[in-house]
């Protein structure tokens, strides 16, 4: 195989690997990998990934993660097993797991005979078999000697070597090489002077075999001064690799330094962990949502950026590398940043919160009793615990979480974190519960408006209310019923019963994230505003240019300076418009990705009078229907037998072919 053919095969393999990758956008790395696993058809541990853009979460805005995922080649997986062998055995080669050892080393392998002719004589090497591989015989040796043009060898010595099969060369003859039949090699420098490919051509009968020193001399003759791979050369000669290029020398590629990163010792993302009894009741006393820290506790530390490691090509030329980028360990309220700005600790006892890329420690404000005449409206920058109710016409606002042991009446409750109402919300058409960055959890919601960027979880019922969630809406307690109102979620609506025999108007909408739609609208407004400015500047600039061309002599220096400012201004506006367009595209693609898995699941019954919209597909229930999961396909709402979304998660679409129907 020529070097050109070899490199062509390498390029084909590169193209194949490029196809085995996908770019994914999702809220977390775990979600990105789950989507990539489904798309590539490989398990998560068989996938490698690179973070293209880290996700961000703040009180008022969040950005998803953007990764490039690719399939790890099978040979690399075996290399990892070899490294695991080294790690587990300390180099002994005896793996704890027999099965793992068999994956790394072939179980059965025949023995091998090698005959080499050097200036000092003829050498024979007999390699033993492994497992149930075949032993080498006198016939095998005779055939090899005949092929190499060697005669007059001591048979007793051959039998001894065959019996011992040490895998070491033994001198068996003083026969001198036959002139003109020697082995030869060709050296080609490729890949921007980073690799030297050696092709060895076999000797004809009686000809001398090349030694490591011969190939090293050939490489040096081509100017190679760095990266000689003598072990690889020796291996290629021992294994008699002929007419096929192998790497005889390789430069050191530059390695860019790793960027600095922040290591957090507290949770930066909080999840609700429900505990249910046999009747389906949720224990709201132990949700593990508040993470308390004490004075002096280490919250985060910065791992510094690494210096880049320069490389060197085959000719000894130094190749520069980039140093890793620094990042800032940001100090929030209630924390102490060390003098070297590498460690962040808690200054006070309280709840740790993560927002806008920084940690802060907020103390918890506890109200024993109701929010009402005694307390007035409550506004607090930390988290709030209320042991009673929030009475009519009062408001509670917090920068952290809010937990209410009683009910929310005709009141306003707003938080940047989670809102938990242990009893429920009785809004009388005027209650409003809103979280900008957490979940809303309640026993029931009646005649109220609830808005959150994450999930809404209700135990018993949602009655004649308006709910909007950037994630999921779930009502799956003992009753678990949604009746009346408008229920809108970006990903999922699930309940035991939806609608009632009275057929009240109940609208279910899935697939549009209200927050992202708002952000897209804001970017579109900015884009339009900048476009209007650009149009005006362009018009003015054209007028000035026309004047300059018509009468250059009368065009003053001041006017020329003004024209240059206009040109600079148009470039800035064009850049802003391009950035806004890119942001709109990113948000739209992210929302489409979320919407692609949008579904509505009803465990028991869904009644007539319920309308369903998933993405841009609409459907109205005209008949009572049992246990269905609805989804969008080809711009139509379709259904399949009910599957619990908590169990199926991201692989539900793979199963939907069973019993699916067109509505």
TrEMBL record:
Sections of the chain in a coiled coil: 520-590
Protein name per its UniProtKB record: DUF342 domain-containing protein
Residue span, RNA-binding protein KhpB N-terminal domain: 23-72
Lineage: superkingdom: Bacteria
Gene3D superfamilies per the UniProt record, alphabetical: probable RNA-binding protein from clostridium symbiosum atcc 14940 (3.30.30.80)
Disordered as annotated region, ranges: 632-663
Basic residues bias spans: 652-663
Annotated source species: Leptospira jelokensis
Keywords, alphabetical: Coiled coil
């Amino acid at each position: 195989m020529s070097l050109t053919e070899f490199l062509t095969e390498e390029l084909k393999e590169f193209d194949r690997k490029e196809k085995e990758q996908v770019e994914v956008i999702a809220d977390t790395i775990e979600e990105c990998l789950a989507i990539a696993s489904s798309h590539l058809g490989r398990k998560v541990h068989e996938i490698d990934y690179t973070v293209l853009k880290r996700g961000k979460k703040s009180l008022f805005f969040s950005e998803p993660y953007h990764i490039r995922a690719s399939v790890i080649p099978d040979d690399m997986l075996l290399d990892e097993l070899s490294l695991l062998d080294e790690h587990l055995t300390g180099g002994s080669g005896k793996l704890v797991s027999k099965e793992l050892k068999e994956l790394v080393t072939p179980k059965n392998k025949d023995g091998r005979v090698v005959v080499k002719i050097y200036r000092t004589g003829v050498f024979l090497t007999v390699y033993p078999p492994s497992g149930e591989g075949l032993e080498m015989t006198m016939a095998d040796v005779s055939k090899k000697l005949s092929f190499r043009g060697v005669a007059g060898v001591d048979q007793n010595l051959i039998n001894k070597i065959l019996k011992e099969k040490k895998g070491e060369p033994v001198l068996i003859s003083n026969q001198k090489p036959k002139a003109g039949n020697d082995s030869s090699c060709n050296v080609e420098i490729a890949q921007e002077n980073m690799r030297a490919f050696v092709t060895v051509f076999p000797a004809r009968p009686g000809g001398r075999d090349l030694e490591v020193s011969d190939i090293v001399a050939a490489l040096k003759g081509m100017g190679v001064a760095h990266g000689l791979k003598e072990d690889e050369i020796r291996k290629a000669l021992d294994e008699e690799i002929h007419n096929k290029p192998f790497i005889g020398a390789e430069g050191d590629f530059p390695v860019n330094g790793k960027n600095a990163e922040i290591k957090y010792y507290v949770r930066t993302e909080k999840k609700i962990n429900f505990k249910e009894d046999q009747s389906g009741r949720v224990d709201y006393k132990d949700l593990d949502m508040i993470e308390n820290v004490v004075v002096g506790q280490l919250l985060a530390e910065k791992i510094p950026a690494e210096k880049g490691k320069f490389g060197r090509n085959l000719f000894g030329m130094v190749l520069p590398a980039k140093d890793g980028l620094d990042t800032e360990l940001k100090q929030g309220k209630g924390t102490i940043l060390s003098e070297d700005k590498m460690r962040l600790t808690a200054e006070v006892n309280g709840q740790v919160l993560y927002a806008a890329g920084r940690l802060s420690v907020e103390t918890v404000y506890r109200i024993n009793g109701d929010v009402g005449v005694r307390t007035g409206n409550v506004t607090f920058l930390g988290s709030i615990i209320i042991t009673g109710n929030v009475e009519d016409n009062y408001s509670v606002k917090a920068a952290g979480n809010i937990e209410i042991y009683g009910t929310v009446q005709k009141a306003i409750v707003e938080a940047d974190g989670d809102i938990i109402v242990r009893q429920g919300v009785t809004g009388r058409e005027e209650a409003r519960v809103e979280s900008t960055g957490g979940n809303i959890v309640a026993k029931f919601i009646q005649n109220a408006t609830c808005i959150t960027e994450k999930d809404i979880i209700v135990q018993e019922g949602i009655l004649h209310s308006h709910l909007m969630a950037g994630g999921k809406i779930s009502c799956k307690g003992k009753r678990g019923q949604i009746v009346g109102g408008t229920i809108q979620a970006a990903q999922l609506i699930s309940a035991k019963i939806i609608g009632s025999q009275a057929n009240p108007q109940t609208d279910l909408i899935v697939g549009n994230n209200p927050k992202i739609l708002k952000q897209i609208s804001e970017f579109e407004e900015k884009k339009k505003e900048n476009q209007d400015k650009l149009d005006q500047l362009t018009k003015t600039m054209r007028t000035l240019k026309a004047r300059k061309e018509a009468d250059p002599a009368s065009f003053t220096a001041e006017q020329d300076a003004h024209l240059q400012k206009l040109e600079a201004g148009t470039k800035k506006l064009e850049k802003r418009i391009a950035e806004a367009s890119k942001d709109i595209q990113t948000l739209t693609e992210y929302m489409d990705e979320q919407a692609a898995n949008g579904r509505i699941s009803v465990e028991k019954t869904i009644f007539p009078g319920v309308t369903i919209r998933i993405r841009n597909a609409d459907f109205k229930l005209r008949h009572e229907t049992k246990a269905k999961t609805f989804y969008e396909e080809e711009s139509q709402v379709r259904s399949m037998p009910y599957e619990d979304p908590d169990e199926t998660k991201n692989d539900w679409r793979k199963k939907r072919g069973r019993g699916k129907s067109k509505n």
